[in-house]
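Below is how a single chain appears once it has passed through the pipeline. First comes the sequence as given, then the structure the pipeline wrote out for it. We keep one example in the README because the format questions we get most often are answered faster by looking than by reading.
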Amino acid sequence: MDLPQLLLVGLVMLLGVLGVLVPGVPGTWLVWAGLMWWALHERSGTAWILLVSATALLLVVQVVQWQLPPRRLRGVGVTPRMTAYAGAGAVLGFVLVPVLGAVPGFVGGIYLCERRRLGTHGEAWSSVRAVMRAVGTSVLVELFACLLVVGAWAGVVVWS
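Resulting structure:
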């Protein structure tokens, strides 16, 4: 696969990761579609193994999300700014502490946004707990899975 196609696949996957943070956008499926596009053009054993593994992971995540409480955005105070902070924190954490850093980065992004908005540690932490109970766990599970898939794809592309 040549560089322009790799960049397009990466862009589709990036849009998928960002789509996880926006309600109503099929972010997980965009990530999977980008990976499938790459695997169909790559046609290597590694590409197929990655596609099958990612498919299984993303299907498990869908089942796990059905078991979690539904997202309740109203009344919790989730804003687009908070979503941007949480997403940026998750991506930054994923890069700084590979894989495991996404979780504290996500929560830290929400905390930073709320601390700036509310001013005190106690109020910010209380808001973080409310947001994580209402929507955070569901979004975090989906975002973490998508970051794992994109990270695995990037690793295979770089090392092959």
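Residues 121-159 form the longest helix (39 residues).

See the next section for the split statistics.
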